[in-house]
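Dear Dr. V.,

Thank you for agreeing to look over these. As mentioned in my earlier message, I'm a first-year student in the group and I'm still getting used to reading structure tokens, so any feedback on how I've presented them would be very welcome. I ran two proteins. I've put each sequence directly above its structure. The first is here:
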Amino acid sequence: MPVSDWWPASPDRGPAVAGAPDGRDVASDDVVRAEVPTGSWRDLLAAGRRGTVAVLCGGVLLFATDTYVTASLLPSAVAEIGGERFYAWVTTVYLLTAVVASALVGRLLAVWPARRAYVLALVAFGLGTAIDAVAPDMAVLLVGRAVQGLGGGLLAGLAYALIRSALPQRLWTRASASISAMWGVGLLVGPALGGVFAEMGRWRLAFVVLVGVTVVVAAGVPTALRRSSRAPAVSPGPFPLASILLVGGAAAVLSVSGLAVSGAGVTGRGIAVAAGGLVVALGLLGGLVVVERRAGDAGARVLPAATFRAGRLAALYLTIAAMMAVAAVEAFVPLFGQRLGGLEPVIAGFLGVALASGWVTGEIVSASVGRARAAGTVGPWLVVVAFALLTVTQHGDAAPGTVVVWAVSLALAGVGIGIAWPHQSAAAMSPGMGDEAAGTAGDDREGDRASAAITMVQMLAFALGASYAGVAVALGTDPAVSARLLYGGLGAIAVLGALAAVRARPAL
């Protein structure tokens, strides 16, 4: 039997099998989808679509670039405007507002047309960036970062939601890969942009450049998103206040507790505070699950009803969360490259982008080849293997060969995330997602919730991963022990994601 007979060829949710609106055979509990070719990259970038892709990718690139550019120029900014004791809050405030904004995307699309919502996101991001550019002190800079986070969270969440309404379903996988690749581009462009202007003593110009790019992206919205001009829902439903408070609370606790183990001079009390914050955040997220489950089909929710019914959508979100959590390791790779491998800072920096490089490469190749079920299942297990290798090879005075193993393992982890990501995210956006009993296959609000939730889950999971990473590194009695705690703990999270991917396989 050829492999293609038992690995479905593509993530295209093409012509449904007769008998059910979402492609499910009414006589079977297994998903049955016709094997039809996915759209090509040429199809994605055809006239009438390339503008849409450019605008959606541009919005995510702004968010990603700003995340990294600010980190690289912040020392220069603090030297000029002061406020060193609030240094870590620049990132904390940004993450908090971004997570809350991403949770509100579904609600926003229920009351506003898509193009207007996207312009609002760009205006918020541009306004916050302009405030940063002229900030006379740290207090004003923090206000700008909060507004930037609101706009950035909306841009990231709207990107996935608008893929659904602006592009045909056969192109969702490639579009998801393109959007996700912008984080890799941002990782390369952001530090370089911030570093250049900081070196020139003109750090404010980096924000001016971002404002200019925001204006350019906004100018393309009316034409690029004309296909997504779906009218908002007649009734948006009740506002999910409880869910928003729980999401915001978890993000706030993670952000604030992370400050206890940031920088030098970590104390036992700081570790206890950070670890306690991690536990509290997990409790708040558990409360979110309870509230969302009890809300019912017509209740106030930020997640689609299918999340808690068939179980496959929940498994997809869990897989996405696990892969995003382990990606938080990037921030610590250069540190251990220097301390354990004796690398120069520049070389250690290149080691730090190995995961991101593998991620971008893996997703572009995977989106081109297809084989959704194979990619979505095998990818997370590659991440597990990579982190196992990283864990057992951490020791002091590492030889050059060991450093090479680290680089290969990090790249392998990135490839594993990359080959699974576009298929997992495209499947999560699919209408109905194994929920034919609820009759939600044609419900745009449910689709918007499912798509927007990808970004919310992504950012919350990254915050959880970063919080754990900070605690693990602080707990180590020496750099080698810290590294093993870091890689081993994140590897355990990767195992959880790989098991969830097996559960989610029928949805791909």
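The second protein is here, in the same arrangement:
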Amino acid sequence: MKQDSTDPPLDPPKLTTHRLTTRGDVLIDELGRTVILRGVNIGGRSKMPPFLPFEIADAGEIPAKADKLMSLVRALGANAVRLTFSWEALESVRGTFDAEYIRRYRLLLDAAQKADLYVIVDFHQDVFHAAFCGDGFPEWALGEIVHGAPHYDCAFPFWAFPYFDPASTVSQAFDRFWSNKDGLLDAFEAMWRHVAREIGRHPAVAAFEIINEPGAGSTALEVIGQSVLPPFYDRIAGLVEAEAGPAAIVGDEPVSMTADVQYMARPSHARFVYGPHYYDGATMFDIGPLDANRIRTAVTAILGRAASWNAPTILGEFGAPNSISFKSDYLTAIFDALDASRTSALLWDVSLSNQKWNGEDFGPLLPDGSEMPWAGLLDRPAPRAVDGTITSFAWNTAAKQFNLAVSSSGDGISEVYLPVRHLGMSPDIAVTGARFRWLAASGQLLVAAPRGAAWSLAVKAK
């Protein structure tokens, strides 16, 4: 069908908020459209003082630097960010919440809103605290545990090893947390209540992720996953929504060394979203050659874990160091699996800084904002918001061809992203069963179909 400019005109819908909820196993926006999130984590630099994704000489620099960062992220084809939030920064003194940190975080949200990015507010922790080469929890949460000063000089995989030692100080810290020693769980609830109250209704906020990569401590993974995490997620979700209103609530598995095992039972919260991560061990150590089919199979299995839950899945983290010789092919294999599963995902990670947390260098952007040679592969076509059921979509990188099929259309306008850097300003666009409008300046294809109809899209670079 040819491009149509007849009444009613096809214009991008106006949203009052980026808030997402759920309908069955899909994320939906305020118009009830199915949303696919593709984006990046922001990010490693934010785990360390001054808890921002870039350096500043004074706080007055934050708005301009935040705008630059979010614009660069948008130029990568992203429509979403998973934005690191630090309890350590918010409440370094127990019972005292730092208003300046909230103000700075809100400035990042403002910049994301300007760039039209959905934001997942992510309480991010790794191995509990910076004294263990980690981040996230405040020092006072360690209680009587003997520890040194904060440091960020433990290369992968060494910083993660304490997760898997039930006698480590990291495991001791998580034991304190899960048992509510010294009221730590109570303090965690108070922290989330404050966060939800202060920023939860910001129009950029799409969802809330309760805790990144929770450790099991000395408790068996099956027990944490089956008996501890589900009620924990339900409880925090309830208090967050009491302050911020209904929202998608993301929860991750307990950290384990095996990517092919699911330990967690489904929380009962109606808007729960499964948030697994994926890092391939052989790839992380540059052990090749790449078996792309193995990667696609592994990712598909992880994305299928929650198939019986009637809940959406977001692959909250994936990636590999920039030193990996076959990184582009590795990421392409992951994206192909994500497309086939019609799943949202966020790459690790983006910062504009020379300072690297534990030496991690995964990102598509250099400190000055220029792109790594492989960064363009992130800029893939995707159905961003569809009024109907997405039955399939796929991007052929070599042929520069994109296909999408949709059924059970509603009365609204669907939005499909088509990257100009790969398809050009005037690609060949064929839409069957609907009318459309192509907005080359934003790489946006608007589609409207009759209610209940099926439609399809085929796009190829000329």
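From my reading of the second output: The mean pLDDT is 96. The first helix runs from residue 62 to 75. Does that match how you would interpret it?

Kind regards,
E.
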